[in-house]
Amino acid sequence: MMNDIIADALTRIRNAAMRKLEVATLLHSNTVVGVLTVLQAKEYIEGFKVIDGANNKKTVQVTLKYDDNDNSVINEIKRVSTPGRRVYKNASELKSFKNGYGTIIVSTNKGVIANDEAFASKVGGELLCTVW
């Protein structure tokens, strides 16, 4: 039984990028789709699509993005808040990450958004993961 579907999704993306695969298959949840929407908006991935499977099980296929030298655009992707240790920050603490080169993905009452959007909207929330 898996408790942390977000950590599993991030690990699958990380492993697929290390193996230089074009597509990674993730388990579906609304939070994972929210994280992938932010990653696509920040151009860390090419895109994703939700696929209906057998027995009403959905999966998400993520198309990874690589630069001209065949290196993954994602240098590092880490889970911050875990089921055993939740991490919350207010809006003023979400100003920048890695001097603006990275992104913190935050779960707020306005949905799953990036840290710069949360800072502009003056909302805090749970830190899901960091990407750069």
Report on this structure:
This protein has 132 residues and is of the alpha+beta class. It has one domain: Dna Ligase, domain 1. The chain contains three helices and eight strands. The chain has helices spanning 5-18, 30-41, 115-121; strands at 23-27, 45-52, 58-64, 77-79, 88-89, 103-108, 111-114, 125-131. The strands form two sheets. Strands 4, 5, 6, 7 and 8 form a five-stranded antiparallel sheet that branches. A hairpin with a 5-residue loop joins strand 2 and strand 3. The longest helix has 14 residues, at 5-18.
Number of domains: 1
**What's the tally of helices?**
3
Order of helices and strands: HEHEEEEEEHE
Q: Can you name the CATH architecture?
A: 2-Layer Sandwich
Shape: globular
Q: What is the percentage of strand-forming residues?
A: 25-35%
CATH class: Alpha Beta
Oligomer: single chain
| Structural class computed from helices and strand pairing | alpha+beta
The strand count comes to 8
Q: Compute the average pLDDT.
A: 93
* CATH topology descriptor: Dna Ligase, domain 1
Major beta sheet summary: 5 strands, antiparallel
**Gyration radius from CA atoms, angstroms:** 15 Å
Q: N-to-C terminal Cα separation, in Å?
A: 30 Å
Helix content: 25-40%
Given as residue ranges, the uncertain stretches (5+ residues, pLDDT < 50) are none
Summarize the structure in short.
The protein is an alpha+beta fold and 132 residues long. It has helices at residues 5-18, 30-41, 115-121, and strands at 23-27, 45-52, 58-64, 77-79, 88-89, 103-108, 111-114, 125-131.
